[in-house]
């Protein structure tokens, strides 16, 4: 008999509108975000450690945003991208993605991409912390993971900064842009997250 965890019964967050921090709003993508989205995904420095090539095709981006418009966060088997914007101007500065495994929806994997013009201001750290709050405190996830190319020192530092633990290194585990690359693995558990043990 399969073990069913309470978190497995939560289901997609169909009522999602936005998450807020002191300086940011994490919301759904809109049509007006398309130029900025394509611009930062087309930056070779941003694309270097990601799963796409630069320049990022406009039509591919348009399809992706249209598909996301039909998605909800915390849908098992799907990725959902949170657009990260500045509240005053609604300028898109980046995005955070969350994947919930179909076979174990009490867990989640996260990723993030931010425009180079907005690096160094703490936006990515603030947004990732807010997504982790959402996953643990609102959605009751048991475990959240992330991985990055081991040469991507800035992403690794961010994952450590938000409280994720380095769990290992997978040597030559991903074929990316014509070479085998190493993946650093990070994770944090519900009871390790601030406030998580009180809501367990």
TrEMBL record:
One Pfam family from the record: Acetyltransf_3
Signal peptide start-end: none
Domain spans labelled N-acetyltransferase: 24-192
Classification via Gene3D superfamilies: 3.40.630.30
Protein's UniProt name: GNAT family N-acetyltransferase
Originating species: Pseudonocardia humida
InterPro entries recorded: Acyl_CoA_acyltransferase (IPR016181), GNAT_dom (IPR000182), N-acetyltransferase (IPR051531)
């Amino acid at each position: 008999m399969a073990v069913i965890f309470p978190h497995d019964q939560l289901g997609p967050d169909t009522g999602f509108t936005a998450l807020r921090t002191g300086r940011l709003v994490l919301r759904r993508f809109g049509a007006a975000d398309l130029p900025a989205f394509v611009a930062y995904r087309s930056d070779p420095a941003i694309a270097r450690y990601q799963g796409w090539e630069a320049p990022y095709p406009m039509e591919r981006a348009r399809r992706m945003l249209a598909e996301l418009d039909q998605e909800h966060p915390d849908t098992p088997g799907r990725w959902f991208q949170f657009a990260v914007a500045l509240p005053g101007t609604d300028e898109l500065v980046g995005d955070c993605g969350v994947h919930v495994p179909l076979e174990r929806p009490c867990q989640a994997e996260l990723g993030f991409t931010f425009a180079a013009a907005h690096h160094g201001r703490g936006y990515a750290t603030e947004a990732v912390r807010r997504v982790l709050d959402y996953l643990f405190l609102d959605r009751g996830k048991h475990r959240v993971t992330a991985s990055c190319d081991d040469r991507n020192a800035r992403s690794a530092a961010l994952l450590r900064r938000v409280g994720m633990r380095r769990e290992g290194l997978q040597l030559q585990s991903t074929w990316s842009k014509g070479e085998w690359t190493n993946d650093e693995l990070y994770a944090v558990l519900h009871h390790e997250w601030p406030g998580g043990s009180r809501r367990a």
